[in-house]
Design a protein that fits this description.
This protein has about 325 residues and is mainly beta. It is built from two helices and 24 strands. The protein has helices spanning about 1-15, 310-315; strands at about 30-35, 40, 55, 70-75, 80, 90-100, 105-110, 120-135, 145-155, 160-165, 170-175, 180, 195-200, 205-215, 220, 225, 240, 245-250, 255-260, 265-270, 275-280, 285-295, 300-305, 310.
C-alpha cells in the first residue's frame, strides 16, 4: 500500500513540474536567465554552446524586496539564473540528477553565487528514486529566496528540505521534514497560503493527509489542519465497535455540547492537527471533535482517541 501511495504522489509531483505561479520558465534551454530588474526572462547563452532566444515572464525579485507568489520550477540538469540573495547579481542554480542504480538517483542542489564556478554552495540528497525542486519566496521581507526539494526514498518515505542562503552567503540554512511537497497549476504556491504538502499518518488508518505549509527559520510550519481525502473506496467510513463521545463544533468553534456516536454507526474523518484533536463528520451533517494523543515510545506506542486506543474503536487498516 505504501508503494501505491508513493507512486501516486510521484505522479502528482511530476505533473506539478509543468507549472508554477509567479514565473513562466523557458523550456528546453540549458541556461535560463531571469533579470531581477526588468522582469524579463532571457535565454541568451551563458556560453558559446548555449542556444539564444527570449520569452516574456512575470516580475522577478528585486535587490531590495521579494515578490509575492514568486515560484520557479526547476528541471533536472537544467541550470537557471536567478538572484537568490537579492544583491542585484544573478546566481546560477542547478538541480543535478545522477543515477546510482537502476532505480535510485543522487540529487545535488548547486548554487554558484554571481554565476562564479569557484563560488559554489551545495546540498545533497542521496539514494532516492525521485526528486523535485522549486524556487519560491516564502518570506518577502527576508531578502532571500527559498529552494524547496521533495524526494522519495526506497522505503517509500517522502522527505522535503528547504534551503536558504545564510547571512554570510557561505552555506545554506536548511530545514527538513517528512512531508511530500507538490506545486501545480491546480495547487499553486502563494506567499500567503504557502504550498501543498502531504504527510503519512496512522490516525484512523495509514493515509496521506493534506495541508498547506510555509517555511520559517525554525522549520516547516503548517498553515492549515491536515485534511482527509475520503473519495477513495479504501478510505470508506469506519464502523464503531463501541460508543464514542465527541464535542460539537459550531460556527464559532468547539462547544460544550456532547454527542454520542453509538456502536455500529460509522465515522468519517475530516481533519486533524495530528497532535490534539480529530474532527469527524456526523450523520446529521454536523462536525464532532475528539481529543487525540500520539504515543511513540517502545513501552507505549499507539494513537489514543479520548484516552482510548483507536484500535478499540474500529478495525483500523495500516500499511504493510
Amino acid at each position: 500500500m505504501k508503494r501505491i501511495m508513493s507512486t501516486m504522489l510521484a505522479l502528482l509531483a511530476a505533473v506539478s513540474m509543468t507549472a508554477c505561479i509567479g514565473v513562466n520558465k523557458p523550456e528546453n534551454n540549458p541556461e535560463n536567465t531571469a533579470d531581477p530588474t526588468s522582469g524579463a526572462v532571457s535565454t541568451e547563452a551563458a556560453s558559446s554552446d548555449s542556444p539564444a532566444g527570449s520569452e516574456e515572464a512575470t516580475e522577478q525579485p528585486s535587490a531590495s524586496t521579494g515578490i509575492a507568489d514568486y515560484c520557479l520550477s526547476l528541471s533536472n540538469n537544467e541550470p537557471v539564473m536567478v538572484d537568490i540573495d537579492f544583491d542585484g547579481v544573478e546566481d546560477r542554480v542547478l538541480f543535478k540528477q545522477e543515477p546510482v542504480s537502476e532505480w535510485d538517483y543522487d540529487y545535488t542542489l548547486i548554487v554558484n553565487l554571481s554565476g562564479d564556478e569557484a563560488n559554489e554552495i551545495k546540498y545533497d540528497v542521496k539514494n532516492v528514486y525521485d526528486g523535485f525542486a522549486w524556487i519560491v519566496d516564502c518570506d518577502t521581507d527576508d531578502s532571500r529566496l527559498d529552494i524547496l526539494i521533495s524526494s522519495v526514498e526506497g522505503s517509500d518515505d517522502w522527505e522535503s528540505a528547504a534551503c536558504k542562503l545564510n547571512d554570510e552567503r557561505t552555506d545554506f540554512n536548511t530545514v527538513t521534514d517528512w512531508v511530500s511537497i507538490y506545486i501545480s497549476t491546480d495547487e499553486p504556491f502563494s506567499t500567503e497560503n504557502g504550498f501543498c504538502a502531504t504527510r503519512q499518518s496512522d490516525v484512523l488508518g495509514t493515509r496521506n493527509l493534506r495541508t498547506n505549509m510555509t517555511v520559517t527559520n525554525e522549520g516547516f510550519m503548517e498553515l492549515t489542519p491536515y485534511y482527509y481525502d475520503n473519495s477513495s473506496d479504501i478510505y470508506s467510513p469506519l464502523t464503531l465497535l463501541r460508543d464514542m463521545t465527541v464535542f460539537i463544533v459550531g460556527d464559532n468553534g468547539v462547544t460544550d455540547e456532547e454527542f454520542i456516536i453509538k456502536e455500529g454507526e460509522t465515522i468519517t474523518p475530516i481533519c486533524t492537527d495530528l497532535n490534539s484533536y480529530l474532527d469527524l463528520s456526523l450523520a446529521d451533517g454536523r462536525t464532532g471533535r475528539i481529543a487525540i494523543e500520539c504515543h511513540n515510545t517502545d513501552d507505549d506506542w499507539g494513537i489514543y482517541l479520548d484516552g482510548v486506543k483507536q484500535d478499540d474503536y474500529a478495525e483500523i487498516h495500516y500499511a504493510d
